[in-house]
Design goal:
The protein has 274 residues and is α/β, with parallel strands linked by helices. The chain is built from 10 helices and 7 strands. It has one domain: 3-Layer(aba) Sandwich (Rossmann fold), CATH 3.40.50. Helix 4 packs parallel to helix 5. The chain starts with 5 loop residues before the first helix and ends with a helix.
Length: 274
């Protein structure tokens, strides 16, 4: 695994945390630095404490296997801890690709593309990276695991209007809320719903039948509707909060297993067939 010093790893964690908690108090930073999982991540060479969330999810739901190579897509990769976990817990021949709007330092054994997952062009690049020659065929769905620990991003690229892969057909106008956590509970909940919806659309386009997905969500009034959308696409959907998630946090994870073989359109995914 890629080696970094303890000071460097702590700096990377605080840099990424500062993007999430702009203007955070010294009290929050002190708690983060002294946190059990933060300290453990430094000792075990993970780029953030989030690694232990995925480790626990994998222990319970068996997303990864060492028996056969897998194709794994990490959405919102920065700083790279989830990709590190995937690299450690999968077959050495597995192909792992991370995608993020932010540029990041290299993670050993993991490929990276800086781009926006809402763009069809980004999905086509991902497909080609995983060996697909004809990106428009049904057989282009080759990914085994899609994972997302995204907490938000800001959409600023005007290309969105001509290159988006889905329109505002769900329960909310998603593109207006894809943003960093604000501290406003309802707004943050809706932003997390939008990110999960974006992850679902990626799964619709890239995940193979039988494939698995895990994504982060913040609790709120639309979580039931999101779970219903997940159940349209997957045979089994579980709600799970790892020990590494702070007790006071509203976050938990949807673990979606065994993508159904039935083909769905984007409209059917969001509003149902009937």
């Amino acid at each position: 695994m890629y080696k970094t010093s303890s000071c460097t790893k702590l700096f990377v964690q605080l840099r990424c945390a500062s993007k999430k908690h702009t203007g955070s108090s010294g009290k929050w930073l002190s708690r983060h630095v002294n946190d059990e999982f933060t300290q453990k991540s430094i000792k075990e060479n993970y780029l953030s404490r989030a690694a232990y969330k995925l480790i626990e999810i994998n222990e319970k739901y068996k997303l990864f296997t060492k028996k056969t190579p897998q194709k794994i897509l990490d959405l919102g990769m920065a700083p790279g801890a989830w990709s590190q976990v995937a690299r450690r817990y999968t077959n050495p021949d597995s192909v792992i690709l991370g995608v993020d709007l932010l540029d990041i330092d290299p993670v050993e054994g993991v490929d990276f593309y800086q781009g926006n997952i809402l763009f069809k062009s980004t999905l086509d690049i991902i497909k080609r990276h995983f060996g697909v020659t004809d990106v428009n065929k049904e057989t282009s769905k080759v990914v085994d695991v899609v994972m997302s620990d995204m907490y938000g991003f800001i959409q600023t690229n005007e290309q969105y209007d001509r290159d988006r892969i889905y329109s505002n057909i769900g329960t909310n106008k998603s593109i207006n809320r894809l943003q960093n956590i604000t501290g406003i509970t309802f707004k943050d909940h809706m932003g997390s719903i939008d990110l999960c919806d974006a992850t679902l659309v990626v799964c619709l386009n890239l995940l193979k039948p039988g494939g698995n997905m895990v994504c982060k969500i913040l609790r709120g009034e639309e979580e039931v509707l999101l779970k219903e959308r997940c159940e349209r696409l997957f045979e089994s959907v579980h709600k799970f909060k790892p020990a590494a998630s702070r007790a006071e946090s509203k976050e938990y994870y949807l673990v979606c297993q065994r993508k159904k073989k039935d083909s769905l359109t984007v409209q059917e995914l969001f509003i149902g067939k009937g």
